[in-house]
Design goal:
With about 110 residues, this protein is largely without helices or strands. About 10% of the residues lie in helices and about 10% in strands. The protein has a two-stranded antiparallel ribbon.
């Protein structure tokens, strides 16, 4: 059977059971169970094999997972803020985001991460 973090639609067939990477829930989506694949909602980001969307808000990330590595970028949450100058606020995660540090578009302000 498929496991959490995988997506197995009805009729899924895998020729080589030693390589199940094609079943992994793709970045930008989350799979709450193996039969569902949903777009990552606004205000969240989803890495490969995500079961529950992760918060895009850096304040929440600092509280929940300050030493966890961020996807796509090098470093942990704290390192990205301290060393790389990622802004504590002003980031945005639209539908299907794969990282939490997309910047608010020039000419706009972003009161929240959605």
């Amino acid at each position: 059977p498929c496991t959490p973090g995988q997506f197995c639609a009805e009729g899924t067939f895998v020729a080589d059971e030693s390589d199940l990477t094609e079943l992994e829930c793709p970045p930008g989506s989350y799979c709450p169970d193996p039969s569902q694949r949903l777009d990552c909602p606004p205000g969240s980001y989803c890495i490969e094999r995500t079961v529950d969307p992760l918060p895009c808000d850096y304040m929440q990330l600092l509280a929940l997972m300050p030493f966890s590595p961020l996807p796509v970028e090098s470093g942990t949450v704290i390192q990205r803020l301290r060393d790389e100058g990622d802004p504590l606020q002003g980031n945005v995660c639209p539908v299907g985001s794969v990282k939490p540090n997309g910047l608010c578009e020039a000419g706009f302000y972003c009161p929240n991460s959605t």
